[in-house]
Write a structure and sequence with these properties.
Number of strands: 16
Number of helices: 8
Largest sheet: 8 strands, mixed
Shape: globular
Order of helices and strands: EHEEEEHEEEEHEEEEHEEEHHHH
Number of domains: 2
Distance between the termini: 57 Å
Helix content: 25-40%
Structural class: alpha/beta
CATH class of the largest domain: Alpha Beta
Bound molecules: flavin-adenine dinucleotide
Amino acid sequence: MTTISTDVLVVGLGPAGGAMAAAAAACGLKVIAIDRKKALGEPVQCAEFIPLPLASHARGPGVLQQRVTGMKSMLPSGAVTTSAFPGLMVDRAAFDRALAHEAQRAGAELVLAGALRGVDAAINVARVATPAGDVDIRYRVLAAADGPHSAVARELGLAPLTTASTRQYTVPLTRPYHDTDIWLCDAYPGGYAWLFPKGARANLGLGVDLRIERDLKAPLDALHRQLVAAGRVGSEILFRTGGAIPVGGMRERLAIGNLVFVGDAAGLTHPITGAGIAAAVISGECAGRAAARHVRDDDRGALAEFEAEMRDQYEAPLARAVARRRELNRIRHTPAAHEDAPHRRGWIAFPEYFSDAAEALCAA
Ligand SMILES: Cc1cc2nc3c(=O)[nH]c(=O)nc-3n(C[C@H](O)[C@H](O)[C@H](O)COP(=O)(O)OP(=O)(O)OC[C@H]3O[C@@H](n4cnc5c(N)ncnc54)[C@H](O)[C@@H]3O)c2cc1C
């Protein structure tokens, strides 16, 4: 068995892992980043919207697809609210590749088709299966950037995160479109349906809570048929995808000894919108700098400070979103779910979502 040593071992090369590897390597650390995928970012499991503050990460080749200006939120009554929602639609595989290449340029070693097989936290060694055989990697900091079903967490016996399920089709768009469409109703319990434009195509998808509804195909097919009939999209399905979204809020601990959780593995994805790319990049960059202080400056409080920073930034909004989900789930498949008011309280486009009166109602 080959054994190699590194300052930082990053498991997962999605946005969180790529950003962490780049930040740690830029600080001069030896970084090895592994991903079980053979082709970075593929298959895409994303609706591919990023908020404007991430624009600097959308400059790589083939990343930017189009700009988005607004959000149309559709309520059960048919009422439509349009809000400003500026952002970018990206090619998510190209986005992930650009981050990983930035890490490589900063000196990180990337190992593709390299899957985590085990972790012995007592001796700081992780076993990784690679096409060339198994390798033991001795690390000083281990980063779990391995998504909603974190293998690192599982290896260490930590609780799995609560997740919602999604299904998405990429379909032809019949005319250019610059808003994101959101459908809020009881047909998508524990989630919502979306249409995100991407040039000549659009990502049409939905998320549901599997504890309430197990069938994602029938409601997605029905929405697709409805949009085809309205002449908005073509009937052809160009690509099918889906995946899990953490919806239970932040993991109990993000820093345990010399282990850190980032991105979806940390539970930083927004439990109402499902947006997680920005939090993945921000947590990855922050953890990379904290790893540098831990390794280079022997600062034993650095990883705990990373956790404190993430809690300052994300704990309150995530807790609000978890409470809103709980309230929405409580009324699913009841007459109340056909009224607009609970959906207004449960969606970020409406002032009720942010009101403390709604908070008190959720807690009741
Ligand atoms: C259908 C869908 C649509 C979404 N749309 C949006 C959107 O429009 N905007 C938005 O902001 N967010 C969206 N999200 C959420 C967003 O995709 C995630 O929040 C984001 O990908 C989190 O990044 P990450 O790096 O933490 O995890 P991931 O992107 O999941 O990356 C984890 C990586 O770890 C690797 N890995 C896992 N296990 C192992 C292992 N054992 N060994 C080695 N490697 C491993 C995986 O191969 C993967 O590459 C969507 C999610 C889904 C499912």
